[in-house]
Amino acid sequence: MGIAAVKIKLMPTSPSVNLEKIKEQAKEIIEINKGKNPSFSEELIAFGLKAIIIFFAWPEEKELELLEKELGDIENVQSVQVVDMRRAIG
């Protein structure tokens, strides 16, 4: 099977949450579950609240549901949303 390029949005519980700690935990979870090359950016939502956007490579044959649940279990993460998933070429 191939590799999928995945984009996930993590929404923290408040603007005062340590986003770097969430990013570290998310990177560890993604890599343990066979995801590769996670990169992070932040998206301003409102009133100082920022969402974490994660891009990474994912084996197509693996379901994303377990990964979504594990990411949602990170302390101070309110929601997890798969924003985009498409087959990577190359």
Key features?
90 residues, alpha+beta, Alpha-Beta Plaits, four-stranded antiparallel sheet, 24% helix, 48% strand
Structure description:
This protein has one domain: Alpha-Beta Plaits. Helices cover 24% and strands 48% of the residues. It is built from 2 helices and 4 strands, in the order βαββαβ. Strands 2-3-1-4 form a 4-stranded antiparallel beta sheet, with helices on one face. The model has no long low-confidence stretch (mean pLDDT 94).
Largest sheet features: 4 strands, antiparallel
What's the CATH class label? Alpha Beta
> Averaged pLDDT, please?
94
Measured by DSSP, the beta-strand proportion falls in over 45%
Compact overview of the structure:
By secondary structure, the chain is an alpha+beta fold. It has helices at about 20-30, 65-70; strands at about 5-10, 35-45, 50-60, 75-85. It is built from two helices and four strands.
How are the elements arranged and paired?
Elements: E1 3-12, H1 19-32, E2 36-46, E3 49-59, H2 65-72, E4 77-87
Antiparallel strand pairs: 1-3, 1-4, 2-3
